């Protein structure tokens, strides 16, 4: 009750400005951080929890359970910025190789990769190794008809952009669509450069336009 009263502004007339009356105290005591678009009690709790988790993850891992040890190893690997800089794009290139390589970032993908390329195999690898659903979403969950058992669900996955509106509507949607395509082009160029491949901007632009066209057809 004290917290609710503290977050109110009893000096405001609720008949004239109910929002100020109900939330004025909160507005006076809290400023939205520049890094956030919103700030609520849930955001404060999340920030406090992250501080607690940071302390836990940075303690020594002696006699920890295996799950805790793995979490601490993952945290340390993310904080090791010098090693991250040293490895540069190598982890991404290794992941691409595992996923069947990328035609736009390969000199002769049609000859060396395509003959042995299997969509079913690559979709399963993307799902099992990278938790990425492409074309088909498949997962195990409680059966809606019988909650005592689990069944396999097959569904459509999420799109590359937040919703299908981004693929068809004009205005700001179109601006995001153009930026999305340019982002794909930029990433492809960077990977080609890291693989010491020749610069071929027109080829990259054409290939990424095909990707955009495919995504649009899927969204449709």
From TrEMBL:
Return the GO cellular component terms, semicolon-separated: plasma membrane
Extract the Pfam families matched here. Peptidase_M13_N
Kindly list any coiled-coil regions of this protein.
none
One Gene Ontology MF term: metalloendopeptidase activity
The record, for SUPFAM superfamilies, names: Metalloproteases ('zincins'), catalytic domain
Taking every annotated instance into account, which residue ranges of this chain make up the domain Peptidase M13 N-terminal? Answer: 14-220
Q: Tell me, which GO biological process terms does this entry list?
A: protein processing
Q: What is this protein called?
A: MMEL1 protein
């Amino acid at each position: 009750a004290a917290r609710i009263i503290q977050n109110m502004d009893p000096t405001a007339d609720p008949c004239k400005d109910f929002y100020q009356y109900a939330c004025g105290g909160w507005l006076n005591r809290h400023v939205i951080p520049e890094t956030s678009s919103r700030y609520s009690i849930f955001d404060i709790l999340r920030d406090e929890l992250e501080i607690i988790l940071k302390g836990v993850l940075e303690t020594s891992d002696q006699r920890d359970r295996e799950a805790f040890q793995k979490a601490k190893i993952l945290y340390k690997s993310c904080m090791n910025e010098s090693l991250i800089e040293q490895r540069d794009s190598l982890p991404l290139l290794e992941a691409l190789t595992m996923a069947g390589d990328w035609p736009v970032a390969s000199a002769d993908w049609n000859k060396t990769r395509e003959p042995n390329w299997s969509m079913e195999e690559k979709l399963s690898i993307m799902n099992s190794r990278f938790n990425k659903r492409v074309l088909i979403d498949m997962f195990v969950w409680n059966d809606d008809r019988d909650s005592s058992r689990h069944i396999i669900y097959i569904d459509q996955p999420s799109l590359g952009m937040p919703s299908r509106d981004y693929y068809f509507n004009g205005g700001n949607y179109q601006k995001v669509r153009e930026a999305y395509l340019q982002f794909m082009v930029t990433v492809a160029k960077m990977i080609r450069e890291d693989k010491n491949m020749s610069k071929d901007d027109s080829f990259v632009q054409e290939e990424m336009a095909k990707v955009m066209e495919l995504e649009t057809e899927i969204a449709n």
